[in-house]
Amino acid sequence: xxxxxxxxxxxxxxxxxxxxxxxxxxxxxxxxxxxxxxxxxxxxxxxxxxxxxxxxxxxxxxxxxxxxxxxxxxxxxxxxxxxxxxxxxxxxxxxxxxxxxxxxxxxxxxxxxxxxxxxxxxxxxxxxxxxxxxxxxxxxxxxxxxxxxxxxxxxxxxxxxxxxxxxxxxxxxxxxxxxxxxxxxxxxxxxxxxxxxxxxxxxxxxxxxxxxxxxxxxxxxxxxxxxxxxxxxxxxxxxxxxxxxxxxxxxxxxxxxxxxxxxxxxxxxxxxxxxxxxxxxxxxxxxxxxxxxxxxxxxxxxxxxxxxxxxxxxxxxxxxxxxxxxxxxxxxxxxxxxxxxxxxxxxxxxxxxxxxxxxxxxxxxxxxxxxxxxxxxxxxxxxxxxxxxxxxxxxxxxxxxxxxxxxxxxxxxxxxxxxxxxxxxxxxxxxxxxxxxxxxxxxxxxxxxxxxxxxxxxxxxxxxxxxxxxxxxxxxxxxxxxxxxxxxxxxxxxxxxxxxxxxxxxxxxxxxxxxxxxxxxxxxxxxxxxxxxxxxxxxxxxxxxxxxxxxxxxxxxxxxxxxxxxxxxxxxxxxxxxxxxxxxxxxxxxxxxxxxxxxxxxxxxxxxxxxxxxxxxxxxxxxxxxxxxxxxxxxxxxxxxxxxxxxxxxxxxxxxxxxxxxxxxxxxxxxxxxxxxxxxxxxxxxxxxxxxxxxxxxxxxxxxxxxxxxxxxxxxxxxxxxxxxxxxxxxxxxxxxxxxxxxxxxxx
Length: 748
Prior knowledge:
- The protein is 39% helix and 19% strand.
- The protein has 19 helices and 23 strands.
- Strands 7, 9, 10, 12, 13 and 15 form a 6-stranded mixed β-sheet that branches.
């Protein structure tokens, strides 16, 4: 007994240390919806009443959809922070309006807020209040762990190691630690749901008494006053009580029915007393007794997704159950997901290895017999997992909500199932039983110190620009100061595809004189016709240090990963355009070279390559397959009847040419005399031949303007390639000269 308690105490102490570390390392409000949770609690503390959402668009953006949530968590939070002076809380924080919310591919700019030394120790005001509420979440997580352990002891009174394993696995789950180190009403509903499951198991495994039923009703009422998942929990609990009554069925049905009605009343009455007033209020204010319509309105609107579309988001739901941090934009390394996914698969194998299925006649007597089996409580807990998942799927069909933390109300059965399956694996040795929590501990510590901490680390100015990166400088003139671009690093020969890997570059900014405004650094990838096919717009210095905080002379290193959109036309070259943008005035700052010459657009680095990837090429109307030198083949062409001025050539690259060539397109009469021409580099110089690589298929449009007095007749369009420096044409490899003749009939 002493050894068991010491191991449980060790798990709980480790959890407390880790969750508190998460709460300290994670900067203010860098967890999902955290600032809305906080300011909802502060609103209640300041005003003494619950917020009301206007039915028009005049809502408080600092409360957002959380004002429509059941209020218990916020009422508790308001009691904690009422003694603290937080009058200037809203003025102390600054939103990062350009943060990559919901995008886990972001290199930087994951911070939802701009963080300042105000957040450092010693805490005061808003910072102190925030950490107090985070401490409440940590304690609620401790309560959840105790419920998991207690539930496991009901299942395995002689195998306490399984209960300890279930507790440890949740204690060391990175997402559990992250959410319980943040301000979130998910922590309270998770605890109350776990407490309800523990109470239901106690009723199932021991005896049903009126005080226990009243306590269950009170817990369910508090859950309904925390999140709408509490309503689902109420329905589930009533179903379990009905099954419990059937299990204990006796020949006196009248007395048994009367007893069941009394039991249900003892549970439902406290729920109505605790949460009924809220449901009535919501109905009066919003026409919806759960206020779900208001929550959806502010959380993104009714998207009306189909079931299959929602199920397609299962990958994100699973990953975020394990370890997605920040505002759903900070992902852990793949090995962490492999560890937890591997444990889940092994647990499933262990659970089903000795499972037995038997066909049974469906009758009241067979139902009673099944309910008396020792495995029945496990099936009931599985039903709660399905209920939570089903409720989440229904919610996801209305708004974006594929976040694993929303499955935490089912954490008890998930933890017990994981522990049960792992404990049944044929793993010899008592010491190896702690392999699983050891792996979990490694993942959560790594995520804390090597994922979250560096992601929000405040950058420091560099002392100098590397000699190879020195650039310009180009001066950007603000109304009250000057900022210069003094360096550019961009690896040559970069290549990508639509929705492929990012193009990488580093900019070096230097503040010459102070500026009072926060300007936006804008980096665009320009494809064909100089259309932007990918961009990053954010505050410089990784989105962490706005320009108003720069000191004269400081140099800031600023790294970018820019992705190309899926609809970009390929192949093409990619030019990199850089500017500083005044978001308030909605215009870029004027830029000049050192000699005062204006520059627009400012192009930096070497062109990158946008390949077509796996896209099936458009086949030409007329195939030619004529080979030229340098591995270039004219695969064919399109010549639209009635529009002879539009000629599309289709080139195929079998290797990378050694230089840039120009395509000549010439109109010749029957005597071979030149009448018109449309020479241009391939794709109007938006995909020069030096960027071509083996396998490229290039569609190359040329506009051949016919002479206005051209008489009807048969003409020839001659095409080929030549060196623009010396005019030497590229030879055909089939001995056909250096050009391809395309017949053209003019009927006008």
